[in-house]
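A quick aside before the break. I want you to see a complete sequence-to-structure record at least once, exactly as it would be stored in a machine-readable document. Don't worry about memorizing anything.
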Amino acid sequence: MSVYTSVSRQQLERFLQPFEVGRVESFVGISAGIINSNYFLDTARGRYVLTLFETLGFDEVPFFLDLTAFLATRQLPCAAPIPDRNGICLHELNARPTALVMRLEGNSVTLPHATQCLEVGHFMGRMHSLTPHFTGQRPSTEHSLQWCLQQATALQPRVAREDWALLQEELDYEQQQPREELPSGIIHSDLFRDNALFAGDQLTGVLDFYCACHGSFLYDLAVAVNDWCQGDPALTRALLHGYQQARSVSAAETACWPAMLRAAALRFWLSRLVNQHFPKAGELTHVKVPHVFRDLLRHHVAQGARLREPWFQAPDCRAQ
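That is the input. The structure line, written in C-alpha cells, reads:
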C-alpha cells in the first residue's frame, strides 16, 4: 500500500461528490506495501481507505470488489467496497481504477503469539470453505512456476553466487512436484502480518485481497504460515489448528506440506528480489528485504519431512 499516484484535496473532494460520506476531515497517504496507491480518509460520517489501482485494469478490479463484498456479507472481517448513490463501487481518479472501502479497526502485529495465529488460521479455513461458492474467476499467473523461472533468469546477473545456486536447486525441485489434484479455489495469496488487524487477540480485519486468484488452498496456507510463524513450531501448530477448526484437510495436502512451504518461500524470496533490483518509482515506497525468505527456504529444506509434524500435534495457546 504505497503511494505512486498523488491526489490533491480538490481532486478528492470532486471524486467524493457522488458518495454520501460527508465532508473531508483528514486525508493521508499510506506508505506500507508495494502494489497500489492507498490513502486513509476520515470524513464527517466515517473512516475509509481510498485505493487507486496501479497495475490492474478497469476490467480486472470488479473481481476483487465482488470478492470482498461476498466475504463481508458472510461475516468475515474484510473491508467491503462503498457504493456511491447509484450503487456503483468502481470509479476513476487520475486515470486509475479507484474504489472507496470501509476502514477496519485494529492494528497489525509484528510479533504474533499463538492465539493470534490460531485466529488467522481459522479465518483462512472459513474463507477456503466459502470461496468455492463464489462465482468470480481469476486465474493464477503471478508467482506461478513459470513466473519463478522467468524472474530467476532476469535476476541471475544481480544475485550472489550462493543465492543463485540455491535458486537453481529449488527450481529444479519445484519442477518435480505434482500438485494438480490438491483442493483449490479463490485464495488470498498474500495474508501477511501487515494484511491483518487485531484488537487484542481478536482478528478485526483482513486487508489487501488484490493478489487473490484461483489457486491451491494449501499454497495460500503455506504463504501465511511462512510469514506469521517463521519456522516456529508452536505458532505453526496454532495456525494449523485454527485452520482445521473451519476446514478439514486431506491426506494428500498434509503429504505435500513440506514442498508447499518451500514453494511459498521461494516465490516470495523471488518477489522481493525483483522489487529490490527492479523497483517501481513511487512517491512513498516500502521495499521489503528478500533474505528473510531465503533463510526460511533454507530452514524448510533442512527440516524436510519433519515439517508435517505440526498437523498432528495439539497447539498450546496459553503462552502469549
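Two observations worth writing down. The mean pLDDT is 92. DSSP finds nine helices and nine strands in the chain. We'll return to this after the break.
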